[in-house]
Design brief:
The first copy, chain A, has 16 helices and 14 strands. By secondary structure, the first copy, chain A, is α/β, with parallel strands linked by helices. Chain A has a six-stranded parallel sheet, with helices on both faces. Chain A has a five-stranded parallel sheet with strand order 6-5-4-7-8, with helices on both faces. Chain A is globular, with a radius of gyration of 25 Å. At the A-B interface, helix 4, strand 2, strand 3, helix 9 and strand 13 of A face helix 4, strand 2, strand 3, helix 9 and strand 13 of B. Strand 14 of chain A pairs parallel with strand 13 of chain B, so a sheet runs across the interface.
Amino acid sequence: MKQYVNPAKAEWWNLIRRPELDTLDLSAIVGNVFQDVKINGDSANRKYTQQFDRVEIDTFKVSQSEFDAANLSVSEELKSAIDVAISTITTFHASQLEKSTKIETVPGVECWRVSRGIEKVGIYIPGGSAPLFSTVLMLGIPAKLAGCKEIVLCSPPTTNETIHPAILYAAQQVGITQCFKVGGVQAIASLTFGTESIPQVNKIFGPGNQYVTAAKQLATTFGVAIDMPAGPSELLVIADESAVPAFVAADLLSQAEHGADSQVILVSDSQRTVEAVLVELENQVAVLPRQEIARKALENSNAIVLDSIDSCIDFSNAYAPEHLILAIQSAENKVASVLNAGSIFLGNYSCESAGDYASGTNHTLPTNGYARNYSGVSVDSFVKKITVQNVSEKGVQAIGPAIEVMAEAEQLMAHKNAVTVRLNSLNS
Amino acid sequence: MKQYVNPAKAEWWNLIRRPELDTLDLSAIVGNVFQDVKINGDSANRKYTQQFDRVEIDTFKVSQSEFDAANLSVSEELKSAIDVAISTITTFHASQLEKSTKIETVPGVECWRVSRGIEKVGIYIPGGSAPLFSTVLMLGIPAKLAGCKEIVLCSPPTTNETIHPAILYAAQQVGITQCFKVGGVQAIASLTFGTESIPQVNKIFGPGNQYVTAAKQLATTFGVAIDMPAGPSELLVIADESAVPAFVAADLLSQAEHGADSQVILVSDSQRTVEAVLVELENQVAVLPRQEIARKALENSNAIVLDSIDSCIDFSNAYAPEHLILAIQSAENKVASVLNAGSIFLGNYSCESAGDYASGTNHTLPTNGYARNYSGVSVDSFVKKITVQNVSEKGVQAIGPAIEVMAEAEQLMAHKNAVTVRLNSLNS
C-alpha cells in the first residue's frame, strides 16, 4: 500500500480516484450478440455457449433431475450455513416492505403508496471456478419478498453441462422460478428479448465481467431496467488506536482478494495503527491462496494518516466507498456523519465478510463512487411504488380553485377544464 | 379515437403499443455539445444559448434582483395557488421519509438503514411558452425533504433574458439553491461536468424534449444518475356506467392537450358509456385553445369495450399507463388488482390534473410502459439508503461459523479468515 501522512485537502481528489481500468469498447461485439439472440433465440444461445463455454447445451432450462442431483451433492454443512444466511437476510429485508399509510393532504384528499413487485425479474450469476451462491440469496430473497412473480436465473454451464450445485441448491431454497444454463452477453440478451425457452424480463440484476456489464447497459436501451452500474469491489477502513490491527488487515485482504483491480483504503488518525496494520497485512497475505491477486490489489491501495477521525470521515465521504468499516471507539455515534457509502460496518467485530454472507444486509452495493448517487439492492429494487389519490367532492372543492389557477398559468386549459366541469356540477 | 369492442386477448399486444415516435439519432449532436461544454464551459454555453435560444447571456446565475423582479410580477392569485400545492405536496412527500428501525437478525447482530440526501442534484425545467413551475414544486420539494444540500435548477432564458417569473418564484418557495439561465443539451452537459459558474451534480431530474432526453442518457455514461427514461404523457381511464361522461372526456383531453404524440385510452365494460364519452369529447375539444394538438393525440388513441371491469384492469396492467383513472363503483377495492401504473386516481372526482398540481402526489411518473419496472419520483429518488450493521462478539460467534463455510465454498479464503481471526481471538 502507498502511504500518505496528512495529505493536503487539495490532494484528496487524487487519492479518491479509482484505479484506471482498461475498458474496451465492447459495443460492437455486444450489439452483434444482441441482434443474433433477438433474431435466432435459443439457436444463437447454443452457438455462443459452445463458443465461449465450450459446452453443448440442448435444453437450457435446468430440469428437476438436475436440481435433485444438486441437492444430493451439496454438503449438509453448507446447507446449514446457507440456512443461517437465508434466515438473517430474510429477517432484515422483510423489514424493508413498506406499509401503506393514507395521508390526508387536505380534508377530502387522501394520498398513499402501494408497492407492487416487478412482475418478471432476471438474476445473472457469473460462472468461473467459485460458485457465487451467496448472490443468489442476496437477489432471490428480496425478489421473493417483493412479490415478483417470475424470478429467472441465468448462469453459464460448467464443463459438466449444468450449473454449479450450490447455485442450484440456493436457487430452490429462495424460490427462483426457473434456472437457465446460459451465461455472458447471450444470457443478458435472452432476458432482454426472450427466446423460445427463456422469458423476457422487466429488470436484470447481478454481477458480471466487462462484457456482462456492457450487455446490461445495452439492455436498458430496450426498455429493461438494471440494478446499478457495476465496478470492482472496494473497501475503506477507518481505524483508530482501539482497532485490532490483525482484524483490520484481514478485512483489507478480504476485499483485495476479489480481484487485481479491487481497491482497499486504510484511513487513520494514528501512524502507529497504520504501521501495525501494514505489518499484519504482510503476515497474512503470505498465506493466502489468492495471494497474487491480493498483492496486485494492494498496489492500487492507499494507507492515509489524517489529523482526526472527523477528517477520516470527510475523506471517506469524498471517496464514497462501497464498504466502510468504522473500527473506532463509539463507532455508532459517527454514523450520522457518513454521507456516502454502500454499507457501514461498526466496531471490531463487524467484518466486511459478515455483510457479504450473513449479517442480513445486502451485498449488492454501489462501487466506483456510485455510493454518492445510488443505494445498494434492497426490497425497494424489486418493487414499483404506485401512488394513489382519492379526491372526494369536498376535496375537489378544496384544491380545485388552486388547480384551475395553476393550469391556466401553464396554459393547459384542458387541465383546468377537468376541474371546472366537476366544480360546476357540484355547484349546480 | 379508434373503437374496439371485445378485442381478442391475442390482439392486445397491438393495442398496448405506444405510437411510433420519429426518434432521431441525436448521439452525434449531443456528444459534440457535451465535449464542447466539458472543455469550454460557460463560453460554450454562451454560444449555444445565442444559437438556440437567440439570447445573449453574460452571467448564467440568476441574481437576487431577477428573483425580486419575479416575485413582484407573479400575481397574488397564483402565489396563493402555489402555496396550496406546496402544502399538499410537502405533506404527502414528508410521509415518505423512512424512519430508521434496528432489526436484530440474530442475537448480537443489528442491521438498519439510514437515508442520506444525494448531496448535489440538478433540476431541468424546459422553456417554451408555458412555464412548468409545477415541476419545480414536484422536484424541489422532495429534494429539500430528502436533505439534498445543493439543488441546482437550469431552465432556458426567455427572450427577455431571464427565466419565467413563475419558475423563479416557485424555486425560491421550495428552497432551490441556485438557478441558471441555460437550457437544452448544454444545460445537461453543464450539470454533468460543471462549468465556471454551474456546479456538477450527482443526479439530474426533469422533463425535456428529445434532445434533453438524449443528453440525460449520455450523462449516465459519465457517472451521473437520472430520474427515469422519459416519453410522451399518457392516460388510461377505466369507466363503468357510474362514471360521468363529461368528466371522463375532460380527463382524456387534459392528457391529449400535452402533445400530438400523447396517447389516451378509454376502457369500459359498457358500450353506452364509451359512446357518451365520445360525444362529450367532441363537444369539449371544439372549445380548447390547444384543440389541434388534442385532436392529433386523439387520432393515436383508443376506446375499448371489454366484457368486465376485471378484464379492463387486466388490459391496463398489460398497457402499464403513466396515469390510471378508475372511474368505477367501489374504485378503491380494485386498487389491489392494479399491478402496473404510475399513479392511480379513484372515482369521479379524482381528476388527473389534481395529481398534476395539488393532490399531493408527484407528477413525474414513468411513461411508455416503464410503469412495469420504474416508480415515479418520490423522496426515495433523492436519497441513498445506506445499510449499517453492528456485529458484537456474541454476534460474530453466532454467524461466524456459517460465514466461514460459505466463504470457503466460494473459494474466498481471506473472507473466511476475517471471521477466523476474530473467532480465534474470542476463544483464546
